[in-house]
Q: What sequence folds into this?
């Protein structure tokens, strides 16, 4: 056993010396098997090699971007049926804080200016492009569409924040300091998608809320018996209890999106229309589930995939 231990010690000692010699050989002045000159040469080689590789990649990317033209429409678009996306979805503002990015809960403490600051600033940022002195509006070919005139190619219909009414204004802090919070709704941009609007009362679906049907009838009576060409919008509590707690609802500037804003053709200066929904005196300390729907003959409602509607919760402490 003694001889075997000596042999193992000799092998370990030899291996240790070999490793140390590989790391630094004092006789040949080599580090990891290479001299200083050899390390310098291989370092220069790899610097040149990777510099050329990065340069080649940059040139290829530059050539690729030269082939793109953001002023042209994509080959497959929702409006002509070539795209898988054929049904618009809705979005809402304000969005929850970043730490709750997946949440749809709008929760604030009534009368607490620090707590409502996030919601007010979020809406202020969203409305900036719609302000009358916005750089996105100035300099573009804008045409007045309020009379129902469809814009010509290369022109856009303007939408300005001054059209919003009551508490749904920047100057009113969007109603969050008045117990009447506002939510802004918009349809997601879908290139070439054209709404198939309702033209007669008989075309209105059975599932449409009665309050919206009555509103459409009023608009028809004041419009020489014709239903305005609109994508109508309705908001209500999802459950009977939510409908009881939600309180009165107001819409501005219209209870829907005028059809003359569509289709979206990627025209510079285009701003999607918005609907401001004001909830007057919703019940405090109660979580209210709210669902807003867009209504047109070619809009499907799918809660699972969030098509044609948007869901959020409102909680006012």
A:
């Amino acid at each position: 056993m003694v001889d075997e231990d000596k042999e193992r010690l000799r092998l370990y000692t030899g291996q240790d010396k070999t490793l140390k010699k590989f790391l630094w050989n004092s006789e040949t002045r080599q580090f990891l098997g290479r001299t200083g000159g050899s390390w310098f040469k291989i370092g220069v080689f790899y610097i040149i090699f990777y510099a050329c590789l990065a340069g080649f990649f940059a040139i290829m990317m530059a050539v690729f971007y030269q082939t793109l033209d953001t002023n042209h429409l994509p080959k497959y678009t929702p409006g002509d049926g070539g795209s898988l996306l054929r049904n618009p979805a809705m979005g809402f503002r304000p969005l929850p804080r970043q730490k709750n990015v997946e949440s749809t809960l709008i929760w604030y403490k009534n009368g607490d200016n620090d707590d409502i600051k996030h919601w007010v600033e979020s809406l202020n940022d969203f409305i900036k492009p719609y302000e009358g002195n916005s750089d996105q509006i100035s300099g573009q070919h804008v045409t007045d569409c309020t009379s129902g005139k469809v814009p010509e190619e290369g022109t856009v219909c303007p939408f300005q924040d001054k059209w919003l009414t009551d508490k749904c204004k920047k100057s009113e802090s969007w109603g969050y300091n008045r117990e009447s919070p506002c939510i802004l709704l918009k349809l997601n941009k879908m290139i070439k998608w054209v709404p198939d609007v309702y033209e007669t009362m008989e075309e209105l679906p059975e599932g449409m809320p009665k309050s919206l049907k009555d509103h459409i009838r009023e608009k028809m009576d004041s419009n020489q018996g014709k239903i305005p060409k609109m994508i109508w919008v309705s908001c209500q509590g999802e459950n009977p209890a939510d409908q009881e707690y939600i309180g009165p609802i107001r819409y501005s500037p219209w209870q829907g999106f005028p059809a003359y804003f569509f289709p979206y053709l990627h025209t510079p200066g285009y701003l999607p229309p918005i609907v401001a929904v004001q909830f007057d005196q919703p019940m405090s300390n109660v979580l209210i589930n709210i669902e807003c729907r867009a209504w047109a003959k070619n809009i499907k409602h799918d809660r699972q995939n969030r098509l044609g509607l948007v869901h959020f919760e409102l909680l006012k402490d």
In short: Helices lie at 2-23, 36-66, 113-127, 210-221, 240-245.
